[in-house]
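Ticket reopened. Same input as before:
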Amino acid sequence: MSSQKKKTFQIEAFKHRVVVDPKYADKTWKILEHAIHEIYNHNASGLSFEELYRNAYNMVLHKYGEKLYSGLVTTMTAHLKEISKSIEAAQGGSFLEELNRKWTDHNKALQMIRDILMYMDRTFVPSTHKTPVYELGLNLWRDNVIHSSNIQTRLLNTLLELILRERTGEVINRGLTRNIIKMLMDLGSSVYQEDFEKPFLEVSANFFRVESQQFIECCDCGDYLKKAERRLNEEIERVSHYLDSNSEVKITNVVEREMIANHMLRLVHMENSGLVNMLLDDKYEDLGRMYSLFRRVINGLSTIRDVMTSHIREAGKELVTDPEIVKDPVEFVQRLLDEKDKYDKIITLAFNNDKTFQNALNSSFEYFINLNPRSPEYISLFVDDKLRKGLKGVSEEDVEVVLDKVMMLFRFLQEKDVFEKYYKQHLAKRLLSGKTVSDDAERSLIVKLKTECGYQFTSKLEGMFTDMKTSQDTVQGFYAGHGHELMDAPTLVVQVLTTGSWPTQPSMPCNLPAELSALCEKFRSYYLGTHTGRRLSWQTNMGTADIKATFGKGQKHELNVSTYQMCVLMLFNNADRLTYKEIEQATEIPAPELKRCLQSLACVKGKNVLRKEPMSKDIAENDAFLFNDKFTSKFYKVKIGTVVAQKESEPEKQETRQRVEEDRKPQIEAAIVRIMKSRRVLDHNNVVAEVTKQLQSRFLPNPVEIKKRIESLIEREFLERDSADRKLYRYLA
Amino acid sequence: MNNPRDLIRFNVGGKIFQTTSTTLANAGRSSFFGALFDDNWNLNSNSDDPIFIDRNPDCFGVLLDLLRTGELCIPPHLPEKLLFREAYFYGLSDHVRCARWGPFDGNRLRLTSSVSGRAPGDGTAIRAGPDGGCCVAHGCIVHVYDWTLEDHPPLQLDYQIVNDVGWLDSHNVVVSACERLGRGDCGMGLFNAVDGELRHRFHVLHDSQVKSFTAGALGFDSNQHKIFASCKGRSNEYGIGVWDQMTGHQLDFFYEPLGWSLGDADRLQWLPGSNCLLVATLFPRKDHCYISLLDFRAPKSMVWAWSDAHVGGMMEDQKRVRDAIAMEETSSMCVVNEFEDLGFMDLRSSGATSIRWSSRSRLIMKGKHDKMAEDEPCYPKLGFHNGQLFSSMNDSISVFSGPEWVLTSRLRCAYGGPICDFSIGGGRLFALHSEENVFDVWEAPPCALALKATQPERGICLIVGAEKQ
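Engineering reply: fixed in the latest deploy. New output:
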């Protein structure tokens, strides 16, 4: 209502379409049709774009869009049919060239037609949901040319044959091939896939299947891999030159499947040239090739890894159980290190530093190193050897390298506490005998152990170093205070060792010669005077002495001997001949020690400062010993070693083992209590699992032992069994 | 300019123009000029004759100027329509459109035109098209306007009352209408926006039988090409139908659960981020409001729901929800009541949510409100575009911006009575007035320079500063 008030209606004139000429549409279309003919006949130079555009515009404007569009379809189809005929007529090699030429022509014509019909494309086509002119041209080309029965298969076969010829080494016209393939891609990805890619992949699969069968019959593994790699690269190159880049994955998959995946196991286990041989011969290049090819297929790398792992385990097992190698600890560890170096290098050079391969290598080493229960001892002995003499004249960096390698082996050990035990022993010997070459190297290793296993592991080892230093100061202090009284007495060097830090054997005191025992008493009173509340006991079994001796013809020598040996020799200041019994009574040295010490004094050639009667190797109760007046040596200083087994003897080993087991008990108990304290209630299996986890860094506790410890803790009322569930333990606060 | 080959001379309808190929290159390859200078057409550039074009020289001059400067200056004597037609001929309509209005910003809008319609009675809905056009539903007719505001042949579906319209793309419009009593015809059709031709009728199948139905609100999922519509079937088959845009076939049907409302929905909104459809049935179509989010992926479920049905008896000043819109950016739902109070709900919590009402918008409206209340009521409508919230009330549209939805602008046009619907799209805001059958077109100016040159001829643009409460 209100609209009528405010506005007056204007009556607009009826808009009728002005149709100029009933034949207008036909005439205009004739012009355009003629233009399309001319364009296809390469005769477009006389055409006026403006006029054609305007004509097409007018046709659409006057609602003749449908006529224009269908006319275009008919005209273009007719042209394409002719084109198709001329392509079919092309003979042999000129087929592709003709196809390419006509495609280029059609493309150009299509562009021009699209330009003319631009207005139709913009308005008529979208509103009627028709195919735009350019796509229409491609579709018509596809249907009338590419899919014409006389062209479709011929085109495919020609392309496949070209590729086959190129694979067999011929040179083909890549530019032309690229153009044709590009045409298929332009026609839509489905055309490319259906009319070329699918059959291409099938034919390729066949080709590579046959070829790989031939190769594998006549080549060794290395050669085969080289050939497969070359084929793979060729296919990748082919894609980059004239195929759709999406085909790369597909064709490489075919090569991978036919040439690698299908022959994987056969290649790896190939006799005399397979993976194991490559590993044995350090064939980095072949191994690298195998790695890079196998990584492309499913399970490829795991196949290599499994074979490598079992090979390393086998070889390692052989190594650690080889009776010849096991004889020499240094050799044993050196062989392990060499083996590790070898595989490290293979993984670096050929396996791309693959983490999974490194892990496999480490777990293999862990597996076989622990097969030999003496590995911890041997590794410690190896370090001992290196630190005693092996590192002389070696630069600091190289020392570090060696130590790092040792640490790596150490990481593989399950019984780290056993290593610790041995290491302590060996370190004590080195320190007390002053044999250690480099203090820095010693300390560096301890730092490494500390970072690896924590403060607890090394605190005692560090204590040993501290003791050495304090002792030096103490002795200096002693001589500073008492020096004037002791001008004539022998020089005494005392190392005060803290009990607990050092691997002490039960002290077996012996009778020291009188002049020494007086000196020792003085030191004792000095020491206790400065450190009240301490107890000193003499570890005579660990000392050394330098004594001067005059032999026949006035020959003077300085003899470097052990404390026990010194005690024995001093007896000969007052006697020329003593029986074993007399010596034993005078010195009170324990029999096995005494025997060993007498052996080294009397039975070692060139160092026999004593003579034994009778002259036999073994010491008997009734043997007599005489001062060897005829002793000669080229050197002024003579070191008389004790006959000592470097490796542990069987009973010693048992003893060490037992000590280790003893030491483990409180550790296991501590772990159990820690766990139970936090969990309050826990069942047996979980306790075992957690204890094992906690102690893993030091050793692998035996479940039976854990059970025993639990029993013991229950007895001591730290824990109790749950009354309902016997498998459950409760913590008693 | 030193290179004479760069110079180009045209003879347009007898008038000589001189320009450079650089200027013409601005037209782009898909224009008349792009094709004209393509190498395929060996244009005789050496000849002294100018290139003849049989078109209007005045328009050519304006368009050439557009290519030179990127600005559109239409002399007063030149009808816009003529210019648009010429632009179409040369393939420059996109250039003209870009020069006409800039990127949409609710705070920069100016009223550029008001178009009066012919249909009697109140308008039902106005929908902005993707290209700057719009369609207006009045009674049983839908008028379609292109971006030049030229009207196309109107759409009708058996001359039944139209309930909603929507654009599929720039050439296709979907119309939902009431079912035709006594006939098995359905209530939804797809039309060609240019010539008004009915292209497809949508059917609803229940137990493989075609049923006639009344289609209500429409929603579109442009990514998966789906159309949603609220449907009321003959035999109480109420719910939401889903069709494929390409094939027109029915894909799915979400039946209305007991005690809920879907088939009468006032608003459908597809939420692409959460893959859900917002369905809102509002007062006064029903006594209560039902707002829900539907997930059509199997198993079909209602993933979020809110209703005021449980509130019970009407309270005096109860705030009834009159429109609802989901804002995925903030995972929230905005609702409005008849006093234009905005309320918000959280879409993330699926449980019982309550509306947080914010009444800061009331203060400004208070005075006006009483006067307008006498007129025929126009319920508030909501719109959301690019982080800005729009709400229509009476004769004005408020623009709210920022995370706190501060009122930043108010669009008002004094002529035409209250606004019954508005729609944003194609860079424009269309507001439909209920009384005078007029719709307004609001645009952001193309750039700062153009803003200075042209002032809105009609209507007032109030810029309201942020107010603290």
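Confidence is low (pLDDT under 50) at residues 1-6 of chain A. Chain A touches chain B at residues 2-3, 6-7, 44-45, 47, 49-50, 53-54, 57, 108, 111-112, 115-116, 118-119, 122-123, 126-128 (CB under 8 Å). Please confirm and we'll close it.
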